[in-house]
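Researcher: Please translate sequence to structure tokens.
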Amino acid sequence: MSISASARSTRESSNEYLDKTNRIMMGVLLGCQVYALALAPWHGTWTSALLVGGGTLAVTIAAWQSNILGEHFRSLIAVAFMVMSGLHIHQSYGTIEMHFSIFVLLALLIAYRDWRPIAVATVVIATHHFLFFYLQISGYPVWVTEPDHAHWHMIFIHAGYVLVEAGALFYLARLAAADAAEGQALAAACEKLTRDDDRMDLTLQLDHDSESSQSFNLFLKQLRALVADVQHQLGSLQQMGRSLTGNAADVERGAERQAAVNQQMFDAMQEMSEATATVAQYAQYAANGANTANELAADSGSVVQRISKSIGALQNDIEITSKAV
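Model: Translation complete:
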């Protein structure tokens, strides 16, 4: 997916910056009008301060509030700045110090990051200097330079400095615009990356041909490779998990079989224990019977001995009787 500076979030950011810059420039323009009123008592230039300065401020405020010019409002700001510079120069009767405001206000226009307002301001102040200097040396009550500096070569010197500054500002404005576009593209890319809480679109690509954009694209490429490697590793882990699950099932089945065998052994041992108890009981019965037999045998021996004694006594009595007969 390609991201350009025309994305919605980028446009919103650009519009916010433009609105902020316009507010700052309007504040500067209001300060220029206050300065014009402060200069008015010097040579009694109240009419110029009120008509030229006040009219310029009023027109600019109306255009700003109505937004009738859109992005071209920055060019109106450039015109208003140079009108205020020309007014201050006129109010001071052409003092050299008042010409400094031209360079200051030109430099402020770089905040728009656009070379066009700078070009407009350059054309306006150049036209002012050439036209109003011609009117000054023709006797009209307008001032561009002090009387002792009222020479055309002074005008060309001023114009040369303005052109040099304008050229530098053109270049800086283009650099600033490129940096801003790149920054806005990076911001839009980051916004798209973090838009969803549960996913990131790593297919984003910046179409700006700059070192930072290429570095960002390279970072996303490396991140995609890392994610792909992680996904591959996760796949391997899942396969390993399935293998472990199968092995665990085999182990579980083996354990169940072993438990069944153990139960059978336990039952057999229990039966053997019961049989052993029965045998022991019968052995006790046999032992008791043997003891009884021994007792009976002992009693029989005593009886036999008594009978033998009785028979012996009887035999002795018979012998005695025989002898007597």
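Researcher: Any highlights?
Model: The first strand starts at residue 2 and ends at 3.
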